[in-house]
Design brief:
Radius of gyration: 16 Å
Structural class: mainly alpha
Shape: globular
Strand content: under 5%
Number of strands: 0
Number of helices: 8
Order of helices and strands: HHHHHHHH
């Protein structure tokens, strides 16, 4: 990690704390500044750290930028384009992770975790979305398959940071979707934001250790 990357990561942490406070106290003007700021700073950190693979770095930067776009749409209460941006973002993470070596026991662990999520809360979420509209149900199902694939590859990379980041991303999205399509989710929006920001930060921190096979 370079000095610039550490400084940007620290600033991202401060911006994240401000965002969580703004969400918990319902100060939306502050949230509109703090939440995008977190992602901008994480992009800067990803660009300035010593990555193990340039291929992985640029795909992860793409995933972060698409997360930024998705954040803006969700803040504007535009769920479908926001979810679409995150869906493509997960495909970017997949493109970066697929070149990493994946020992089969780690992949199996990822499959078990994702399978449990899809079989449990995932089914309820897709059903709830489909009750709103068939198109929405298809979009949510595709999204869950995409993030599931990302989690399997991240856990399967045997990188602790990437695996934890992907799992927190899955937890954040599951909480968000549960609150939208099923019922109230524990922790509300604050927990959704906190798990999301930590997830993205861990994926950035994983970059030095992710080396193409």
């Amino acid at each position: 990690m370079t000095t610039a990357a550490w400084v940007l990561m620290a600033l991202a942490g401060v911006a994240a704390l401000v965002d969580w406070w703004s969400v918990g106290t319902d100060r939306r003007p502050v949230e509109f500044v703090a939440k995008p700021a977190v992602m901008v700073l994480l992009v800067g950190a990803a660009l300035t750290l010593d990555a193990g693979s340039e291929w992985v770095r640029w795909w992860f930067v793409g995933g972060l930028l698409l997360g930024l776009v998705g954040d803006v749409f969700l803040m504007l209460r535009r769920f479908v384009p926001g979810a679409a941006a995150f869906l493509v973002g997960h495909l970017a993470y997949i493109a970066g992770l697929v070149v990493i070596e994946h020992p089969w026991p780690a992949v199996l662990l990822g499959l078990v975790i994702v399978g449990a999520d899809l079989w449990g809360p995932g089914r309820c979420i897709v059903r709830g979305a489909a009750e709103r509209s068939r198109v929405l149900g298809v979009l949510v199902a595709a999204y869950m398959l995409a993030i599931g694939a990302m989690v399997v590859l991240a856990v399967g990379s045997w990188s602790t940071l990437a695996g934890l980041g992907a799992l927190l991303f899955l937890a954040s999205d599951t909480l968000l979707a549960w609150g939208r399509f099923v019922g109230s989710a524990p922790g509300g929006r604050v927990l959704v934001h906190a798990t999301y920001h930590v997830a993205q930060a861990l994926l950035v921190l994983a970059l030095p250790g992710l080396v193409a096979a």
